[in-house]
Amino acid sequence: MPTDPTDLLQLQRRALTVLADLAPDALELGEVFRAAGHELALVGGPVRDAFLGRVSNDLDFATSATPDETIALLAAWGDAHWDIGKAFGTIGARRHGRRRGGADVVVEVTTYRTDAYDPASRKPEVVFGDTLDGDLSRRDFTVNSMAVRVPELTFVDPFDGLADLARRTLRTPVAARQSFDDDPLRMMRAARFAAQLGFTVDDDALAAIEDMAERITIVSAERVRDELTKLLLSPSPREGLEVLVATGLADHVLPELPALRLEIDEHHRHKDVYEHSLIVLEQAIALETGTHDAPTGPVPGPDLVLRLAALLHDIGKPATRRFEDGGGVSFHHHEVVGAKLVARRLKALRFDKATVQAVSRLTELHLRFHGYGEGAWTDSAVRRYVTDAGPLLDRLHRLTRSDCTTRNRRKAERLSRAYDDLEVRIARLREQEELASIRPDLDGAAIMEILGIPPGPTVGKAYKHLLELRMERGPLDHETARAELLAWWSAQEG
């Protein structure tokens, strides 16, 4: 597809505005390297983002200097530097903002590279190169294979990345099969950039991913997890997830997701549970409050736990599907089965324990509300709902609301009103009873004193009994709680 010259001109104007803002630090660093006889160029994401009108204070550079030469130059330029990536030719540095109110500038400078890959491993053998074009050829996509030489501010684009940026297309700088064979993680990055940037993966790259999807299995679970996390936290995760499923990558990294395409959902309105889950994800994102940069409300977005729960809440359905007499379909206890599957998958992807537990718990609880609309809950049931959700309550509110994807307007409005009512009751009880920290009216020490018993299992049983009373009847005064404890104790002795 030919590129509209007007689009290119608009991109160039944006880039000039952004580059002018970062130019003082970048130009000065370029002068330092040029004075020492070395080339320096801004590369990768910061260049791409400049054309998209985005400013970054974390700048990636490529250079003809060796890592040791780079260390010496950055030590003179910056306020701090580190060499943790030296084996890969990368040296980092930080410089405090020189202008009033200016943010710190963080740079990473990497010696030109030409990587040689072992087909059985994702880790490259690092071979330093001697040209900028050669270094750019080893990058994942053409939109990330552009550079700006400094201090000259000369634009370098050997693979027509700017034209692809204007077309909003992800294309590899070398043959797609070669690129993905060299580094299979680039296939995941294609899906991630589709979600982050809203770009389309070109046909050659899509075909290569379909043919080579199984090669993703040589990549570590941690690296796959990191790409999946970035995808889910992007502005439009659906676009990236659709790439994963359509190309077969999801079969290897998140197989429970494509498995949902074979099912029908409980509303009998959507093509399949896969489509339902994507809609739930989109609706959950819309209910996030504020952002991490400007956090407001109880669930500032992007919230990884909420998004994972929205995407995976129904993955127990394939294992629990039953065809009923009369043509109906049931998924009894899919929330319990799904919670176990969620925990297993997230552990396999090396997610941290807190995330695994939170997403699994939300999956287990996501159907709890649906009994509320059928009849009024007692205060006891509301207390249990809040206590079982614990710190996940605000996320559970959003997950439950998002799970309503019916096209039946009356049903949707009825469910919404029912949840509005539940939230009002929770707020009222919380104000009256401090629901977030429900405890029995007598603690362990009081139980032992009243019953005249030492620490042991009996104290725990008594505590549990009093907690049940607290759930059922709300707060009790000391004398009532004491009488109830003694009555329970008498029944135990009998």
Automatic annotation (TrEMBL):
Which cofactors are reported in the record for this sequence? Mg(2+)
The segment(s) forming the HD domain are 273-399
| UniProt keyword Ribosomal protein present | no
Q: Which GO terms describe its biological process?
A: tRNA processing
Tell me the first and last residues of the signal peptide.
none
* Top-level taxon of origin: Bacteria
Q: Does the keyword Transmembrane helix apply?
A: no
Xref: InterPro entries: Bact_CCA-adding_enz_type3_sf, HD/PDEase_dom, HD_domain, HDIG_dom, NT_sf, PolA_pol_head_dom, PolyA_RNA-bd, tRNA_adenylyltransferase
Task: Name the Gene Ontology molecular function terms of this record.
Answer: metal ion binding; nucleotide binding; nucleotidyltransferase activity; tRNA binding
Entry-linked Pfam families: HD, PolyA_pol, PolyA_pol_RNAbd
Which keywords describe this protein according to UniProt? Answer: Coiled coil, Magnesium, Metal-binding, Nucleotide-binding, Nucleotidyltransferase, Transferase, tRNA processing
* Segments forming a coiled coil: 412-439
NCBIfam families linked to this entry = HDIG, tRNA_CCA_actino
What PANTHER family is this protein classified in? CCA TRNA NUCLEOTIDYLTRANSFERASE 1, MITOCHONDRIAL (PTHR46173)
Q: What is this protein called?
A: RNA nucleotidyltransferase
